[in-house]
Amino acid sequence: MSGPLVLAVESSCDETGIALVEGGRRIHANVVASQVALHAPTGGIVPEVAARAHLRWVVPVLDEAWQAAGVRWSDVDAIAVTYGPGLAGSLLVGINFAKALSYVHRKPLVAVNHLEGHVYAAWLLDPGEAERAEPIFPLVALVVSGGHTFLVEMRDHITYRLLGPTVDDAAGEAFDKVGRLLGLGYPGGPAIMAAAAGATRHDAVFPRAWLGDTFDFSFSGLKTAARRIIAAARADEGLPADEGRPGAAPVPRLSEDATAELADGFQESVVDVLATKTIRAAETVGARSIVLGGGVASNHALRGRIADEAAAHGMPLLIPRPGLCTDNGAMIGAAAARRLAAGERAGLDLDARPSLPLATPA
Ligand code: KG4
Ligand code: ZN
């Protein structure tokens, strides 16, 4: 083994993830039980439903990870767990479970920030995957998920300088809202990406919130504009109004062509702002690489656009494969190895931190 073997537990939102990761890099097992089907009927996550699903799934997920990795308890060096940010009830299930494992097997406990996990997913290697270069410091990381959207600068491991937060909504939240307005169901991100792929015209124009020269993001104005644009398109097709309320009874959807064109226009707006600010941030701080993480980083349009621009600037770029962009245990194991190396240990009195930040503004 090269580096410690960490058993990592992730339960901050709606995926129960348990992984075994060696040296903060090599995945031995990474099992994720997704609650997407459970939350689809309500069009969004109901916190208590999510917490109870973690409670049901956490042991079967551990069993599967354990079997996939084929290791013994004596091989495990530490237990890592997400302690925030996230839904309190969901976090508590994973934290309590990790504590019990740490206590019973006498392994050190390491507390990991979920957002740090999204950044460190870029270091992961799948089982059998060939070695490749690690991200080079200084780097700029764009974390773009359902709950968070921000740019940070890293000059070394586990040190973050916040370059730009979102002043209102996260990008994933906008995807989910517009997905509902288009009647595409939950979660909106993958559904909008699929719908946009069918667009034959690219004429729908959605606004972009540039917020001057800052690296800040804002997506609430885009959500409002989307509501207005989609309502007008529905009126054009003689359809009744639809507020896209979570769990509301289904109403007739826009034609496939209009849906595709609007999904494409919305996605282009989000991708344009995310890509432009990320590249400008990297240039401004003199970054030697760019890293992306979070569920929205699995979006093909965003990946393609940033890849093109990073290549044009001669900037190495690392975007984890889509399954490692969305929530999973391996990313927590990757970050935990750095915390462990820094001598960090959590006490068995560890509590959930639902609003834990990654970094405070510079
Ligand atoms: O990182 P994640 O799994 O959970 C959070 O920590 O929030 O991100 C989930 C978010 C959801 O808003 C979902 O709609 C979005 O990521 N997402 C996508 C795509 N896949 C997931 N957004 C755009 N395109 C995708 N392909
Ligand atoms: Zn996440």
Can I get a quick summary?
This protein is α/β, with parallel strands linked by helices. It is 41% helix and 16% strand.
Describe the structure.
There is one protein chain. The chain has 362 residues and is an alpha/beta fold. Helices cover 41% and strands 16% of the residues. The chain contains 11 helices and 10 strands. The chain has helices at 36-39, 47-69, 88-105, 114-120, 171-181, 188-196, 220-236, 256-285, 300-312, 322-325, 330-341, and strands at 5-10, 15-22, 26-34, 78-84, 109-113, 139-144, 149-154, 161-164, 289-293, 317-318. The strands form 2 sheets. It has a 5-stranded mixed β-sheet with strand order 3-2-1-4-5, with helices on both faces. It has a 5-stranded mixed β-sheet with strand order 8-7-6-9-10, sandwiched between helices. A hairpin with a 4-residue loop joins β6 (139-144) and β7. The chain is globular, with a radius of gyration of 21 Å. Zinc ion binds at residues 114, 118, 145, 294, 327.
